[in-house]
Write a structure and sequence with these properties.
CATH architecture of the largest domain: Alpha-Beta Barrel
Strand content: 25-35%
Structural class: alpha/beta
Largest sheet: 9 strands, mixed
CATH topology of the largest domain: TIM Barrel
Helix content: 25-40%
Bound molecules: pyridoxal-5'-phosphate
CATH class of the largest domain: Alpha Beta
Oligomer: single chain
Mean pLDDT: 96
Radius of gyration: 23 Å
């Protein structure tokens, strides 16, 4: 990557999402699975690349009204929308009905939600397709009993078509055994429902929580993981399978660039202060800044190796990005490029703390051009006590 071109044009801190890498990644993931498996992108992982991946992806999982607005304002194909999420309120469903042409696909997370969707579907004369989300034992989805209840309720509903089941039990799941257990459980449960209610549960939308290797020395065999998952899925007959994935699709296209603004030492060691920090950069599984994420120093320097701890710019002792990193001849204005930050990083940080600006977001298109898709955003406005006159 030509960091000098990027850094001449844009100041740090910033996120960079590389569209060419992202396209390659999606094609690679697809190549690891049978052709008939569909891919639903969980847009919460990154909403800045949606238009660019629309043709490569079979659907968009949308979990809030805000996410719906993003997709709709981008004029994404509405037949790819799966409106999901625990809090679907009257106003947002109404808005979605009024602003969608085609039959809308929803997930249903509770009996109350089912009743609300049904009532509004009738009121607005809108047909909806439902995936019932089965819980994995947390606040999401319905119990087996409620699942059956919804099936019974839906029997004579003209506007509602139950098209399948949605299941997601967590992210960054490295154990193939766990996936196997979940898929066996789902098959048993679906067979039971189909026999008892004489219906077909046509679709299984499954979120495997496919993991990303974030830290040096913690690599895992992704190809083997995908192969085993594909084998398990290919044993499921007579059902359309979709994999609902966020992190694994988008993490590797993302870079976060932050520069050294100060260097000093004290009784605790060598300190590097960066213009970014934990408000912008969250690595799933990082503990006490002990693990080393994949990163580069720019420019590359040669010289004496010293160990430094990398701190961010927040007024909290917790704002440490990496402890004891060996570095050669580091200088003020050197830039660190953190890798694999394409999923969740730009939204999971405590970005309003200390009223620091949100970083800009750049997309690198397939011709190598850098495009600003979000400028820095001042957060002092958001932390300001506006008073009605
Ligand atoms: C319902 C649902 N599906 C899919 C995902 C995406 O998970 P991941 O990013 O681990 O693929 C999430 C993440 O929270 C989710 O809640």
């Amino acid at each position: 990557m030509d960091y000098s071109k990027l850094l001449n044009k844009f100041s740090t801190p910033m996120y960079l999402f590389d569209i060419e890498l992202l396209e390659k990644r999606i094609k690679y993931i697809k190549s690891c699975f049978d052709k008939d498996i569909k891919f639903i992108y969980a847009i919460k992982a990154n909403t800045f690349i949606l238009k660019q991946i629309e043709e490569l992806i079979d659907g968009f999982e949308i979990c809030s009204f805000g996410e719906f607005e993003i997709c709709n304002n981008l004029k994404l194909n509405q037949s790819k929308f799966v409106i999901s999420g625990v809090n679907k309120d009257f106003d947002s469903i109404k808005y979605i009905f009024e602003n969608t042409n085609k039959v809308v696909k929803f997930t249903v997370e509770s009996i109350n939600q089912y009743k609300l969707l049904t009532a509004l579907a009738k009121q607005y004369n809108k047909k909806i397709e439902l995936l019932i989300r089965l819980t994995s034992g947390n606040q999401f989805g319905v119990s087996e009993t409620d699942f059956e209840q919804i099936i019974s309720y839906s029997k004579n509903e003209e506007m509602i078509k139950i098209i399948g089941i949605q299941y997601f039990s967590g992210t960054q799941k490295k154990s193939v055994k766990k996936l196997e257990k979940e898929l066996n459980y789902l098959e048993q449960f679906i067979n039971y429902i189909e026999e008892k209610y004489k219906i077909i549960i046509e679709n299984l939308e499954y979120g495997p929580g496919a993991p990303i290797s974030y830290f040096v020395g913690e690599e895992f065999d992704e190809l083997e993981y995908f192969k085993e998952l594909n084998n398990m899925l290919s044993k499921i007959k007579n059902r359309k399978i979709s994999l609902e994935i966020g992190r694994s699709i988008v993490a590797s296209c993302g870079f976060y660039l932050t520069k050294v603004v100060d260097i000093k030492s004290n009784q605790n060691g060598n300190i590097l202060l960066l213009d970014g920090g934990m408000n912008h950069l969250v690595y799933y599984g990082q503990t006490m800044a002990m693990r080393i994420p994949y990163l580069e120093q720019y420019p590359i320097r040669k010289g004496e190796v010293n160990h430094y701890t990398l701190y961010g710019s927040l007024c909290t002792i917790n704002d440490i990005l990496i402890k004891n990193l060996p570095l050669e001849d580091v200088k003020i204005n050197d830039v660190f490029i953190f890798k694999n930050v394409g999923a969740y990083c730009s939204t999971e940080g405590i970005s309003l703390f200390l009223s620091r600006e949100l970083p800009k977001i750049i997309l690198k298109d397939k011709d190598g051009n850098f495009k600003l898709v979000r400028d820095n955003i001042k957060t002092s406005n958001l932390n300001f006590p506006y008073v009605e006159e």
